[in-house]
Amino acid sequence: MEEFLLAACFIAIPWIIFHYITKWKTSASITTDDEALLEELYNLAKRLDERMDTVERLVGQDNPDFRPARIQHDKAIDNAPLRELEELLAEKKDARK
Questions:
Q1: Domain boundaries defined on the chain
Q2: Burial letters 64-90, b for 16+ CB under 10 A, else e
Q3: Is 71:78 a contact under the CB 8 Å cutoff?
Q4: One biological process GO term for this chain (predicted)?
Q5: Could you tell me the pTM of the whole model?
Q6: How far is CA 86 from each of CA 7, 20, 48, 68, 92, rounded to the nearest angstrom?
Q7: Tens-digit pLDDT profile for residues 2-54
């Protein structure tokens, strides 16, 4: 009985503690599936933005008084964060290879 208590105190309890610490640390990181989903969502958002630009351009041709309420297409200041994100995605793809 004494050996069991000794094993429980010095082996089982620290093992359980370290096991859950490891689980806690790994659950806080982004998995490759999450990265793939984020990249897919980013590409979808880019395509939708291009479609909105096309629709606004077509409506603007039909109605000269039309002024889009959203960010203007291809402004350098608006596209800077997108370029940074595209560079990060390219670096990630290169690192995987």
A1: 1-30, 31-97
A2: eeeeeeeeeeeeeeeeeeeeeeeeeee
A3: yes
A4: regulation of DNA-templated transcription
A5: 0.50
A6: 53, 36, 16, 26, 10
A7: 777 777 778 888 888 989 888 888 777 777 888 889 889 989 988 988 898 88
